[in-house]
Amino acid sequence: MIYIVLWLFCFAMLACAVRFPDRARWYCAAAVCAMGLFAVFRGATGTDTAAYEQISALARSGGIFATGAEPFFAVVLKALQLTGLSDAGVVRMVSALEVGLLLTYIGRSVPNERYLLLAAILPAFFYEYTMNALRIGLASILFLLALQAVSRHRKPSHAALGLALAASVTHYTAIFYPLFGVAALRRWSRRLVLGGVLIGALVFAAVFLLQHAYLMAKLQSYESLRAPSRFSGLSSVIQIALVSAAIWKSTLSRPRKGQLLTLALLLTAAFMGLVQFSYAGLRLLDLVVFVLPPTMVAAHELENKPMNLQARLGLLAFGLVSTVFVFRRFLVESPDSLAPFLPYHLIFS
What we know:
single chain, mainly alpha
C-alpha cells in the first residue's frame, strides 16, 4: 500500500534527522516532496476531490462568490485558473501550493519544528489535508506559518497576523486556531479574556453578515447529522491525551503547562459533550487535535527550551497512533464515494 510505504519513509526521514541533525532540513524536505508527489499526481483519490473540482468549475463560470466557499480559497482557485489548467489540474495545484508552503515552513524551521513536522504533522494530517479537506488543510498550514512567525519575533508580528487572517478566511472554523494560540501562549488576565471575546464576536459578526447564507446552510447540515455512536470522537480524545502527556512531561514552565492542559481538557470535554447531539462536535475535536502539537512546540520556542525526550516520545506516539486511525478511516470509507482513498489512482491512469 502506497500510503504505508510513504508513512514508513516519513518515519525513516525522522530517524535520519535525529541521527544527523545538521541535514535535518533536507530529510524533512524529502519527506514532504515524496508525499507531495503522490498528492499532486493523484487521480480520483481523496474523498472530496470531485467536490473541489465542482467548486473550481463554479468559480470559473460564476466568479468567486458563486462557489459557496470561503473568499480567500475562492480567490486562490481563480488565481490558479489563470494557469490555463482544467478544474482537475487546479485542484491538484492547490495540493502543490500546500506542499510549497510546507517547504517554506521547513526553510525557516528550528529543530523542534522539524521534529514536529516529521513525527506528528505529516503522519497525522498530510493525506487528509492535501488530498481531501483542502480548505482546512490550506488554512492549517497558513496557521503553522503564523505560529512560526510568532515564535521568531516573540510576539504577533504583521506577518503572523496576516497569515492568521488568511487562514481564517480560507476556512471559517480556522479562526479557532489563533484564538487557541493566544489563550495558550499569553498570560491569562481579565484584559486578555475580554479582548478575546470582543475580537471573536466582531469576527463572527463580520463573517455572519458577509456569508449569512453559507453559514446557515452549514448549520442546518450539521443539525441533520448525528455522530455514528456515543463513542464517536474517542480516537481524537486519545490523540489529545497523548499530546497532553507530552506537555505534562515536558520542560515547559508550570504556568505554561497549566494553561495548555486546562485548555485541552476543557475544550475536549465540551466538544465531546457536543458530539452526543451533533456531528459538529467531531469537527471541533479535529481542530483541537491539530492545534495542540504545534502550540506545544511554539511554547518551547517562546521559553527558549529544547524538547526533552519525554515530549518527543509523546509526539512520536501521537504520530504513530494517528497513522492507525487515518488508515482505518480509509478502510471503512463509503464505497459510494466518487474518489475514495483506496485504491490509490494516479492522474495518468
